[in-house]
Amino acid sequence: MRTVKTVLVTLLSAGVLSVLIAAAVIYAGLFNVAATDPHWPATYWVLETARVRSIQVHAAGLAPPAGYDEPSKIVAAVGHFSEHCTTCHGAPGAKQSDLAEGMYPRPPNLKDVAGRYTPGELFWILKHGIKMSGMPSMESDGDAMLWSTVAFLEKLPRMSDDAYNDLWVQAQAAGGQGGMDHGAMNMDGAGNAQTPPAGHSHK
Ligand code: HEC
Questions:
Q1: Quick one: which atom of ligand 1 is closest to the CA of 103?
Q2: From CA 98, how far away is CA 201, in angstroms rounded?
């Protein structure tokens, strides 16, 4: 009985001590928030696991509505994507902007990572954004447009530069989507996907 008590008291004191040390380290400004200073492997593991598990749990049970991946919706989604996402994530045939290269975490190339998520998880990410990363919530674009963007993201890993460009040209011919401000996210001109190929602007 006495040993159990000793063990418990020791564990509790160790716990309190760790919290105090952590608080002292943070208050002393020793944790470096610089984007140029990568996380330690342990910090990275904690943040990455928290992100992946949070997305999985919050998105559980989210299923796409019927017809969300109709061809016309994918065209509209490409218009939306080229205006709101390529500055940070790039697109087939278009690099991400210099601005995005300086971000930490750096916005990933969605062609490489979109396949890791279910449609419900992609929808949740777009609707809510990701805390402490720079990934914004796109909730104001409306659920229907976000589901169309999900349909596009599902096709992206296997989409060629030419196929993307064709969809982009169709999106411009259809007048973008919902009167969105053209080039709203094209902060430094690196959104190459927004440059119409010569002679193709009216199809
Ligand atoms: C201001 C920059 C920025 C914009 C604009 C942006 N994102 Fe992101 N996005 C990020 C960052 C940074 C991450 C990485 C988050 C992380 O790793 O914690 C991210 C992550 C994601 C992820 C999760 C992928 C992964 O494994 O990290 C998806 C999916 C995504 N973005 C889709 C989009 C789409 C679609 C749009 C446009 C509707 C968009 N993003 C607009 C910065 C941006």
A1: 12
A2: 27
Q: What is the C-alpha end-to-end distance of the chain, expressed in Å? A: 83
Answer whether 172 contacts ligand 1 (Cβ < 6 A): no
Beta carbon of 127 within 6 Å of any ligand 1 atom: no
Q: Which pair of tokens denotes residue 193?
A: 């996907």
Q: Distance between CA 158 and CA 152 in Å, rounded?
A: 11
CA distances from 162 to 40, 53, 93, 158, 197 (A): 40, 35, 8, 12, 11
Q: How far is C-alpha 130 from the geometric centre of its chain's CA atoms?
A: 7
Distance CA 109, CA 173 (A): 26
Least confident range from 66-70, 80-84, 162-166, 176-180: namely 176-180
